[in-house]
Each structure stands twice: as structure tokens, then as C-alpha cells.
Design goal:
mainly alpha; 6 helices
Length: 144
């Protein structure tokens, strides 16, 4: 369970990533089409950021914790808290900036090269949508 958000349903994971991709690609028509839905859900983009940031900054079970690993974890949490506050206090105005911030993080930390940001975001979207589907299937099975 995440320290900031609960799991997102697959359709919202898809929506959030599609919005970030549209903003990053400069597709103003697609971003404008998705914006009303995104803006109605101020926790959506912070949730997408969390899906990307926490796996990179979380404490690893594979290595012994050290000061650097704790610092990286805390920086990730602070980054996510700032995005959440930004989204909470101005959801409509904040959405494009948060989307660009998410894309920038991917470009700086996860993409092999700056031109690969869209490809990296698409891969993350596909992976996270599939994970969300698995979680929702599991939850439905338990409820039955």
C-alpha cells in the first residue's frame, strides 16, 4: 500500500498517463480533450507520479539501507507531497505543470535519452495499467 494514495483503477491509470503523454508530446488537442476529466480528479496526477517515483526512490529490500537510501526515499516522498499540494490547491491550473514535471522526472531518471521520454512513458503506462488490472481482478475475486 502506498504512503500517499490507494490503488487507482485501470481506466484512471490509462487516463492519467494519456494526459501526461499528450502534454509531453505537445498534443494540445488531446490534452484539452482529457483535461476536464483530469481536472475533476485532483488526486489523479499525483497518483500517476507516485506510480513512477516510488519504485525508483523506495528503500530496497535487496541491499542494506544506508544514509543515501533513506535520503533518496525521503526526497521521493517530499516530491510527491509537493505535487499533491500543488494539485489540491489549484487542480485546473496545476494539471499541465504536474504533467510536465512527471515527464521531466521520467526524462531525467528513467529514460535512456531525452528523446525517449514519450516511449518510456508509454512503457510505464502499459505496465501500470496491467498492474492495476491485476489488482482490480484480485480485489473482485476476494469480494466474490
Amino acid at each position: 500500500m502506498s504512503p500517499i494514495i490507494r490503488s487507482l483503477p485501470p481506466h484512471l491509470v490509462q487516463l492519467g498517463f494519456n494526459y501526461v503523454l499528450a502534454v509531453e508530446a505537445g498534443d494540445d488537442v488531446q490534452a484539452a480533450r482529457l483535461a476536464p476529466e483530469v481536472e475533476q480528479l485532483p488526486g489523479l496526477l499525483p497518483g500517476i507520479a507516485e506510480l513512477i517515483v516510488l519504485p525508483v526512490t523506495a528503500l530496497s529490500d535487496d541491499t542494506d539501507p544506508c544514509a543515501d537510501s533513506f535520503a533518496l526515499y525521503e526526497v521521493g516522498i517530499i516530491y510527491l507531497m509537493a505535487i499533491r499540494e500543488w494539485a489540491t490547491h489549484g487542480p485546473a491550473a496545476a494539471a499541465p505543470g504536474i504533467a510536465r514535471t512527471i515527464a521531466h522526472f521520467v526524462g531525467q531518471v528513467l529514460a535512456d535519452a531525452p528523446p525517449d521520454v514519450v516511449r518510456a512513458l508509454q512503457e510505464l503506462r502499459d505496465e501500470q495499467v496491467e498492474r492495476a488490472r491485476a489488482v482490480w481482478r484480485s480485489e473482485r475475486s476476494r469480494a466474490s
